[in-house]
Write a structure and sequence with these properties.
The chain is mostly beta strands. It has 4 helices and 42 strands. A hairpin with a 2-residue loop joins strand 8 and strand 9.
Length: 566
C-alpha cells in the first residue's frame, strides 16, 4: 500500500469505534503480554476490493510473428505457461484471506464477528476497547459480574462509561490508580483503557483497538490524557501517600513546632519563632509520607520520618543535637505515628511494605522495645498511616485502616482491636484523632466515596460516624484543631480547594475558605498556631507554602505567602 493509502487508512481508523472502542492512528505494535482470549479471531466486514486481473501477454512476449496470427516465429520456442496465482494469505487484523499481489483488506467497520456473533460474553463488541477492558476487570481486578448492563445500567460506548460510573457512585477523577479504567470522550464514541503502571506525571495503559485496529497495544502518556474510573482498583498510585504540607505540635506557650519533608526529600524542623533547619541526611526522606511529631514533657520534639527506601528514622535532641536512628520498616508511602505514653516515653507505630502494623516503645534504658505486631500481618493499608493519640483519661489509642478500607481502633495494652462500623474508609487518607479542651476524643475520617465522618469516643466504645456536609478528596488527610474556642477541620474538597469547616456535626462554622491549593487532590493541609497570631491553615501550591489565618471570615480573601517558615 502506498503512502496515500496508508494516510487514508489512518483517517478511517481514527474515526472508527463501535460499541466501545476508538481507533487512533499510530505505530502498529504487538506485545507478548496480550492475553485477551479472542486476539486475532473473527472477521470484520471489509471494503470491497477489485479482483486481481491477470495481464495479457504481448505478441512479442508470446513469440508470435506479425502477419502470422497464432503462429510462432520460425526457430522460436513457445513461452512457458504463466505461473499459477500465489496461495491466499490470512490477514490477522481483518480475519480474511486475500491475494498477496493486491492490498490487504481494510475493515469497513471496527466490528469482528465470531461464530456469527459480534458480542463478547459481557455484551461488548469483540476486539474493541470496552471488550478488552471488561476482560481486564474480570481477570485482574476480580470484578466477576462486570458486563454491559452491570448494576442495572447500560454502559455501551466508551464515552458513556464515566457518566454511568458516577451515577452508580463510583469515584471518577484525575488521579490514576493501578487497575483503574482510563477513559476519554475523544474520538467518535470515546475510548477506554486499563491502567497498568504509573510514573511521575505519566500513566501507562493497556488497550485494544487504538494503534492497531482490533489489536492490543500499550502506551505511556501524560496523566491528564484521561480521566480515571475507580471501579475496583488493584492498588493506589505509588505517588499517593500520607503526605501533608506541614505537621505541627503545639507547645505550652501558644506556638507550634513544625516539621515537613520538601519536594526534594529533605526533612525540615522548626521551633516556634525560629527558621526551619535540616534534620538528617538531605534528599533521603519520602516526599509522599509526612513525618510524625510530638513534644516530650520537657517541651522537646520527638520526631519520626519515613525514608525513600522504607526505613523509619526517629530521634530527639540530645546535648543540643538531634540524631535520628532507625527504629522500624515502613512502606515509602506510609507515615509513622508517634505519641507519648502514660509514662512520658514515646510510642511509635509503622506499617511495613507488606502491610504489617507494629508498635515499639522507648525503654527506660533509652533503647526501643522489640516490635509488637498488631492485627493480621500483610493486611494494613500502605498508602495511609496509623494514628496515635491520648484521650482525656491518659489512654493511648491506635487507629489504623486495612488495605480494604476497614477501620480498627485499640487502646494499647488494655483491649483488643475493635472494628469500627460504617462504610469503607479511603485507603489513601489518614484519619485525624484529637482530644479537645473539653476532654472529648473524636476521629475524623474520609470514606472511599469522599464523605467526611466524625466518630466520638464514649468510654471504650466508638460511635458510628456522623457526617459533615460536602464532598471531600479521598486522597488527602484532614487536619483538626481548635479555632476561636471551637473545633474545626481543614480538608481538601473534591474540587481541590482547601476548606475549613466546623468539625462537630451540627455546629455552624463562621470560618470561610482556607488557603487555596492548586487543585491537587492529593495534597493535605496543616494547622499550626503562632504565638500572638492564632491558628493558621497551611497548604502547598507547587513549591510554595500558602497560609491564611484560620479565623478569617471573608470568603473571597486571597491566600498570602506564609511570611514565616513552617
Amino acid at each position: 500500500m502506498g503512502k496515500t493509502g496508508i494516510r487514508w487508512l489512518a483517517r478511517v481508523v481514527a474515526a472508527t469505534c463501535l460499541a466501545s472502542g476508538v481507533a487512533g492512528a499510530g505505530a502498529v505494535a504487538a506485545y507478548a503480554s496480550d492475553d485477551y482470549p479472542w486476539a486475532g479471531e473473527g472477521q470484520c466486514p471489509i471494503v470491497p476490493q477489485p479482483p486481481i486481473e491477470e495481464p495479457e501477454p504481448s505478441p512479442e512476449a508470446s513469440g508470435q510473428q506479425p502477419g502470422n496470427p497464432g503462429g510462432a516465429a520460425p526457430g522460436v520456442e513457445p513461452p512457458p505457461p504463466p505461473p499459477p496465482p500465489p496461495p491466499p494469505v490470512l490477514d490477522p487484523v481483518s480475519g480474511h484471506l486475500y491475494d498477496p499481489r493486491g492490498p490487504r483488506p481494510t475493515c469497513a467497520r471496527q466490528v469482528w464477528s465470531i461464530d456469527g456473533s459480534i458480542g463478547d460474553p459481557w455484551g461488548f463488541v469483540w476486539r474493541n476497547c470496552t471488550s478488552f477492558v471488561s476482560w481486564r476487570l474480570h481477570e485482574r481486578n476480580g470484578m466477576a459480574g462486570f458486563a454491559n448492563h452491570f448494576r442495572g445500567e447500560h454502559w455501551g460506548n466508551a464515552e458513556n462509561w464515566d457518566d454511568v460510573a458516577r451515577r452508580l457512585g463510583y469515584r471518577v477523577d484525575s488521579v490514576p490508580a493501578i487497575g483503574a479504567v482510563a477513559q476519554t470522550d475523544a474520538g467518535r464514541v470515546g475510548h477506554v483503557a486499563w491502567v497498568s503502571d504509573i510514573g511521575p506525571g505519566t500513566v501507562t495503559v493497556e488497550e485494544y483497538n487504538h494503534a492497531l485496529p482490533g489489536g492490543y497495544g500499550t502506551r505511556t502518556v501524560p496523566v491528564a490524557e484521561f480521566r480515571y474510573l475507580h471501579l475496583d482498583d488493584v492498588a493506589p498510585s505509588p505517588y499517593v501517600g500520607s503526605d501533608r504540607s506541614v505537621v505541627a505540635a503545639p507547645d505550652s506557650r501558644g506556638g507550634s513546632w513544625t516539621v515537613r519533608v520538601d519536594d526534594r526529600g529533605t526533612l525540615r524542623l522548626a521551633r516556634p519563632g525560629r527558621p526551619a533547619r535540616t534534620v538528617g541526611p538531605r534528599r533521603t526522606f519520602s516526599p509522599v509520607a509526612a513525618p510524625a511529631l510530638t513534644l516530650s514533657r520537657k517541651g522537646l520534639p520527638w520526631l519520626a520520618a519515613t525514608t525513600r527506601d522504607g526505613r523509619v528514622l526517629a530521634g530527639t535532641p540530645r546535648r543540643g543535637r538531634l540524631v535520628l536512628r532507625r527504629v522500624a520498616r515502613s512502606a515509602p508511602t506510609a507515615s509513622p505515628a508517634v505519641a507519648l505514653s502514660r509514662t512520658g516515653r514515646p510510642l511509635l507505630a509503622a506499617v511495613s511494605p507488606d502491610g504489617t502494623l507494629v508498635t515499639r516503645r522507648l525503654t527506660l534504658h533509652g533503647g526501643w522495645s522489640r516490635p509488637t505486631r498488631v492485627g493480621r500481618p500483610a493486611s494494613w493499608g500502605t498508602h495511609t498511616a496509623p494514628v496515635l493519640d491520648t484521650d482525656a483519661r491518659g489512654r493511648t489509642w491506635l487507629v489504623a485502616v486495612t488495605e480494604r478500607g476497614t477501620t480498627f481502633a485499640q487502646s494499647l495494652g488494655r483491649t483488643r482491636l475493635q472494628r469500627l462500623g460504617g462504610p469503607p474508609a479511603s485507603p489513601t487518607s489518614t484519619p485525624a484523632l484529637t482530644t479537645d479542651s473539653t476532654g472529648t476524643t473524636r476521629l475524623h475520617q474520609v470514606t472511599a466515596t469522599g464523605r467526611l465522618g466524625v466518630r466520638t469516643l464514649d468510654g471504650r466504645r466508638w460511635s458510628r460516624p456522623e457526617w459533615l456536609s460536602g464532598q471531600w478528596s479521598p486522597y488527602a488527610s484532614p487536619a483538626v484543631g481548635e479555632v476561636a474556642g471551637d473545633l474545626h477541620v481543614a480538608a481538601t474538597a473534591a474540587g481541590g480547594a482547601v476548606v475549613v469547616r466546623g468539625a462537630v456535626p451540627g455546629q455552624r462554622s463562621q470560618v470561610g475558605r482556607g488557603a487555596r491549593a492548586a487543585g491537587d487532590l492529593t495534597l493535605s493541609p496543616g494547622l499550626l498556631t503562632r504565638r500572638d497570631g492564632g491558628v493558621y491553615v497551611v497548604a502547598r501550591a507547587g513549591a510554595r507554602l500558602l497560609a491564611r489565618p484560620a479565623a478569617a471570615v471573608v470568603d473571597d480573601s486571597v491566600p498570602t505567602s506564609a511570611g514565616f517558615t513552617p
